[in-house]
């Protein structure tokens, strides 16, 4: 008789026993046994915040690599500006010395127009030409630095826009919870 009652009890439990729970399909989460809907919603919100924060960190990492690369280029360009500036200063001094020597040689020498004075004039003109070339190279290097700084500003602005888009999309999503239930498997629990 006891085995008959046990079998009938098992059959009744099988027919009527269900385990109800909440699920959030988008987040692939299920409530724990006995967890209330409010508690589960709080857990889903926390999971969403964690996922959103991970996405924001990925966006930041992506742009930080790009910004770091541009900053290295800026450092190289600034070094080039300094190098070109020092070369310009040296060229300026050499040209001034050459001009002074040419003028003094012409004024104090025996002949104003001599092959020696003409050679000095040529050297002075080459120095002046070199000086103007150095000045143009300084300007180009400064423009490069400015362009790279603008590129960094654009990258930072784009990063902020992407982060804001991510935050907006995560804040606009409604939590969709579904109530689900599971019935016991006869072959697993009721032999």
Topology:
Layout: H1 2-16, E1 19-24, E2 29-30, H2 37-108, H3 115-172, E3 178-182, H4 186-189
Antiparallel strand pairs: 1-2, 1-3
Helix pairs in contact: 2-3
What descriptors fit this protein?
191 residues; mainly alpha; 3-stranded antiparallel sheet; rod-shaped
Strand count, sense and barrel status of the largest sheet are: 3 strands, antiparallel
Biggest sheet: strands side by side, in what order?
2-1-3
Name the poorly predicted regions. Answer: none
Straight-line distance between termini: 17 Å
Sequence of secondary-structure elements: HEEHHEH
Work out the strand percent.
5-15%
Number of helices: 4
Shape: rod-shaped
Q: Which class do the helix and strand fractions yield?
A: mainly alpha
Return Rg in Å: 40 Å
DSSP strand tally: 3
Helicity range: over 70%
Mean pLDDT: 80
């Amino acid at each position: 008789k006891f085995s008959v009652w046990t079998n009938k009890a098992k059959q009744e439990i099988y027919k009527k026993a269900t385990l109800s729970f909440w699920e959030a399909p988008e987040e692939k989460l299920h409530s724990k046994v006995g967890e209330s809907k409010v508690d589960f919603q709080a857990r889903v919100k926390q999971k969403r915040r964690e996922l959103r924060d991970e996405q924001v960190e990925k966006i930041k990492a992506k742009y930080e690599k790009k910004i770091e690369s541009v900053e290295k280029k800026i450092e190289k360009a600034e070094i080039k500006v300094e190098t070109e500036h020092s070369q310009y200063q040296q060229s300026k001094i050499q040209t001034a010395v050459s001009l002074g020597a040419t003028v003094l040689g012409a004024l104090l020498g025996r002949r104003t127009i001599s092959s020696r004075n003409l050679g000095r004039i040529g050297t002075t003109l080459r120095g002046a030409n070199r000086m103007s070339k150095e000045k143009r190279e300084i300007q180009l290097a400064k423009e490069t630095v400015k362009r790279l700084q603008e590129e960094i500003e654009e990258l930072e602005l784009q990063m902020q826009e992407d982060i804001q888009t991510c935050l907006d999309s995560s804040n606009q999503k409604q939590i969709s919870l579904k109530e689900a239930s599971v019935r016991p498997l006869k072959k697993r629990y009721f032999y």
